[in-house]
Amino acid sequence: MDDFNETTRERIKVNPFLSTWLHPKQTTRYMIEEKSIGFAILLISIGYIGVILSDLIDKISLIDLSPWLIVLISVILSPISGIIGTAFVALITWLFGKLFKGTGTYSQLFKGLSLTAIPFIVLIPFYLIWLFTSPESLMDPNFAGSIPWILWLATLVTLVIGIWSIVITVGVVAEAHQISNWMAFFTLLIPSIIFFFLIIILIIVLFFILGIFMI
To answer: Which residues form the Yip1 domain (predicted)?
Structure first.
């Protein structure tokens, strides 16, 4: 009984915004057992603001919009794109995890995978500074002016966050499915390879069809 109470107290102290970085498995278990889908959606909604802002690179079609309007659009779209993206990844990892006898449910994977949005919160201030100080260098692929310092910093941080997010994702899938990290890694790798080849095949088919019509 004392062990149970001690475990409960430890879980109450878990702060997903901090513990996700170094303890993804412990945080995933906390999310699965203690938090609701609503809290998971909150994490996704905040984190995907960073995802959308980082996706502004070379988006020249948006360059004439006010930075404030772009920020507003990002805030509105973040929960929509985040829920769709996380729901899709949860479905894929749920299905392919069964190949390795994973025991996680779809709901558990969705709540756990919401943690992967947390690192992208770090990107928000960097891309906001870039957007407001030098929108041309951010969104114009043909920008030929002087390169702002924020470009190098934002690029470096984005690279680190991207890699760390993959590490967290592996830990989340491993904990949710109760499988090893290597099995979790292949749970993510196998569908990625399949989708890659499907895209290649689709591109080849499209070029073939276009070639027929151009003859």
So the answer is: 19-201
